[in-house]
C-alpha cells in the first residue's frame, strides 16, 4: 500500500471511529458531521471523499462496529482452553468490566441505533438485524457446544436460548445506562448462568 493510500485509509478510519464515539453518546440524529470533522481535524471535503452522505457514514460505522465486535466474540467464544459455558461467561464478564471502565455510559451501538433508527430507516434496520443475527448465532453455537458437553440442559433449543440471552443482555444494558451502575449487568450474569443456562 502506498503512503498516500495509507494516509487516506487512516483518515477514513479516524472519521469512522470519531463518528462511532459521538453517535454512541448522542445518537445518530444528534451527531453532526461538523463535530466529527472537528474531532478528526479534517476539512469537509475529506468526509465526502469517503462517504456520499451521513446515511452512508452511519452504515459504515455499523459495519466497522460489527467487525470489531465479531472479533471480540470470536476471541472469547473460541477460547478452547475453557469449556463452552465458561467461554460464554468470560465474554459477559469482560463486557461488564469494559462498561465499568466507561462508567456505565454508551451501552451497545447496535441496541442504541436499533431503538433510534429501526422505524426511521430501513437500510439501518436491515444492517443492524444482520449484525445482531450473527451475534445471536455465535451465542447459539457456543450454547450448543455446552449442551453437547453436558454443561447445559438440552430441554431448550440452543437458538432460543441464544435469542433470550441476547435480548436480556440488551435490556440489562438499558437499565445500566439508567441506573449508572453495574447492578443490572451483575444481575444478568447471576441469573443467566445461575438459573437459565443450566
Order of helices and strands: HHHHHHHHH
The proportion of residues forming helix, as a percent range, comes to over 70%
What is the averaged pLDDT score?
A: 92
How far from one another are the termini? 50 Å
Low-confidence parts = none
- Provide a count of the helices: 9
Q: Enter the CATH topology name of the largest domain.
A: Tetracycline Repressor, domain 2
Percent of sequence in beta strands: under 5%
**Could you say what the CATH architecture of the largest domain is?**
Orthogonal Bundle
Overall geometry = elongated
Describe the SSE topology:
Layout: H1 3-26, H2 33-40, H3 44-50, H4 54-77, H5 84-101, H6 109-117, H7 122-148, H8 158-179, H9 183-196
What is the gist of this entry?
The protein has 198 residues and is mainly alpha-helical. The chain folds into two domains: 1-51, Orthogonal Bundle (Arc Repressor Mutant, subunit A), CATH 1.10.10.60; 59-196, Tetracycline Repressor, domain 2, CATH 1.10.357.10. The chain has helices at residues 3-26, 33-40, 44-50, 54-77, 84-101, 109-117, 122-148, 158-179, 183-196.
Amino acid at each position: 500500500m502506498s503512503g498516500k493510500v495509507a494516509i487516506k485509509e487512516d483518515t477514513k478510519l479516524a472519521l469512522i471511529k470519531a463518528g462511532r464515539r459521538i453517535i454512541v453518546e448522542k445518537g445518530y440524529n444528534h451527531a453532526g458531521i461538523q463535530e466529527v470533522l472537528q474531532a478528526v481535524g479534517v476539512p469537509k471535503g475529506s468526509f465526502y471523499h469517503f462517504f456520499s452522505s451521513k446515511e452512508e457514514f452511519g452504515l459504515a460505522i455499523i459495519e466497522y462496529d460489527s467487525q470489531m465486535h465479531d472479533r471480540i466474540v470470536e476471541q472469547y467464544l473460541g477460547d478452547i482452553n475453557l469449556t463452552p459455558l465458561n467461554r460464554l461467561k468470560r465474554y459477559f464478564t469482560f463486557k461488564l468490566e469494559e462498561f465499568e471502565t466507561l462508567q456505565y455510559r454508551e451501552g451497545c451501538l447496535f441496541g442504541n441505533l436499533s431503538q433510534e433508527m429501526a422505524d426511521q430507516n430501513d437500510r439501518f434496520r436491515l444492517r443492524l438485524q444482520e449484525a445482531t443475527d450473527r451475534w445471536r448465532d455465535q451465542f447459539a453455537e457456543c450454547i450448543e457446544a455446552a449442551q453437547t458437553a453436558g454443561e447445559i440442559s438440552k430441554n431448550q433449543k440452543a437458538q432460543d436460548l441464544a435469542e433470550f440471552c441476547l435480548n436480556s443482555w440488551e435490556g440489562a444494558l438499558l437499565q445500566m445506562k439508567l441506573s449508572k451502575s453495574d447492578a443490572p449487568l451483575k444481575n444478568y450474569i447471576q441469573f443467566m448462568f445461575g438459573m437459565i443456562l443450566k
